[in-house]
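Q: Got a minute? One more chain.
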Amino acid sequence: MAGRFFCPEPLAEGRFTLGSDEARHLVRVLRFGVGDRVEVFDGRGFATLAVVTELGRDRVELAAEGEPLVDRVAPCQLTLATAVPKGERFDWLVEKATELGVHRLVPLITERSVVDPRTGKLDRLRRAIVEACKQCGRNRLMELETPTSWERLVTEAHESVRIVAQPCGLPPELWPRVPHGGSAVLAIGPEGGFTESEVTLARNAGWTVARLGATVLRIETAGLAGSAALLALCGERVE
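A: Always. Here it is, folded:
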């Protein structure tokens, strides 16, 4: 078996239907045929093996085979709220955050932001998230939100651990630990960083100011390094 396909429609009597893009990829690119076995996932945590039963021009029918597969989940629900880097760097960030297991990504609008992704780009990136999930074996799609202002994020965030990345903050060994199965949000600023007033706003709202390392990181590097560190710390059970 060498194929994994996204099917958001619910299972109907043990059968799946792949439409348009996924069907064409199965038939024309990977050249699967009737009787071949593949993996199907719905983006909400369900995945199963399935056998191809019928091929159409833009439609493929499959029958579920065996028990549902184990859902691969991160040790905590991590929200990455990040300023948007220029060009294709944001595409790369979205793809790798999906692979890491980030639960939700929020594009941030800050005082120094220079990029505000439009609806068309976000829709394209949501399709890229599907492709990343197919590649890495993830069964739940990462949520990609519409751009949100820094003020709104700071005041409305409800996660148990809230961290804003700043070079002058606490080192990782002093970060607050997230309980296994808990939630956290990591905020990454734009080029030039958050302004003093933005950091003060976060501090006053109970956020932890933390540094990610000894050097100054680009937006996408900071987002991924911080996410990986937080997810690793989430893996340490807190009694």
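A: The mean pLDDT is 93.
Q: Perfect, thanks.
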